[in-house]
Design goal:
The protein is of the alpha/beta class. It has nine helices and eight strands. The chain has a six-stranded mixed beta sheet with strand order 5-2-6-1-8-7, with helices on both faces.
Length: about 270
């Protein structure tokens, strides 16, 4: 039987405290995402996080995690001890890894390999979404080393080929991300309008062009002092196909310097 075409997702992952805030709207949105994944049962998930940029500063070079045990990377600082004791159980898969390499190679996207694990941009929302563990294979791949939205788009298009093999593609970052303003409690008049721009770009008929154009938006530098939390949205938009996908809003909520946006692109139903 042919594989069911995989879907594409973007999750805002916020900060580590959200994984303990079970009554919060973002926590509940992660749970809805988990139910969507459980219903879709993808063959595996290929995940791109804001917190892993390839350290080779050249265009289109991607790092692929080859540690199938998916150890957790506690890449956050200054939190209580229990934050570093949290667990999330998952594994990679040899076929998934081979298929990722094949898709990148076929698209002419250079890659390296690295034994790494899942950073908090992945495992924090996944811990909530999957209630601490999942048997769906998960592989994390890095953002391009040059931090370019054009490279991110090319990368997303390369990953799109995996959808036909039944894999889901997911980006994780933050729709609005300015930690300095958050910590210093500065006014954030840019937060809501930039989030509106992101939401419109994701839902447009040309999401790749429109998400790339967010990097030219007059509020971009205020909403994102650095690009890494916005780049996974471009990857996801490029892996989606507005001609054959429906875009669904999982959760969108302005919250000042850390605006939330979560969406999925699912194959349109074929009329009988």
């Amino acid at each position: 039987m042919a594989a069911t075409r995989g879907s594409v997702y973007f999750l805002s992952h916020g900060g580590p405290p959200t994984m303990f805030q079970s009554t919060s709207a973002p926590y509940q949105a992660w749970q809805r995402y988990g139910k969507e994944i459980a219903a879709a049962r993808p063959r595996g998930l290929v995940v791109v996080s804001a917190h892993w940029e390839n350290d080779q500063p050249t265009a289109d070079v991607i790092a692929v995690n080859t540690d199938a045990t998916n150890p957790l990377v506690y890449d956050f600082y200054g939190f209580p001890k229990e934050f570093y004791e949290q667990t999330f159980e998952s594994r990679g898969d040899a076929q998934l890894l081979a298929d990722i390499k094949g898709a990148l190679g076929a698209a002419g996207v250079a890659y390296s390999t690295e034994k790494r694990g899942l950073d908090h941009g992945v495992w924090v929302p996944f811990k909530v979404a999957f209630d601490g563990r999942t048997d769906i294979p998960i592989a994390q791949v890095s953002l391009p080393g040059d931090s370019s939205p054009l490279s991110a788009a090319r990368f997303g298009r390369a990953l799109a080929a995996l959808r036909d093999q039944g894999y889901g593609i997911m980006g994780t970052g933050q729709a609005v991300h300015n930690l300095r303003d958050l910590m210093q409690r500065r006014p954030t008049p840019y937060g809501a309008p930039f989030l509106e721009a992101v939401d419109a770009a994701v839902k447009s008929k040309t999401p790749v062009d429109d998400t790339i154009n967010l990097f030219r938006h007059p509020l971009y530098r205020q909403a994102h002092p650095s690009p890494e939390h916005l780049l996974p949205i471009v990857v996801a938009a490029a892996a989606a196909d507005p001609a054959t996908d429906d875009v669904n809003e999982i959760f969108v909520q302005p919250e000042g310097a850390l605006g939330w946006g979560m969406w999925s692109w699912t194959p349109k139903a074929v009329a009988a």
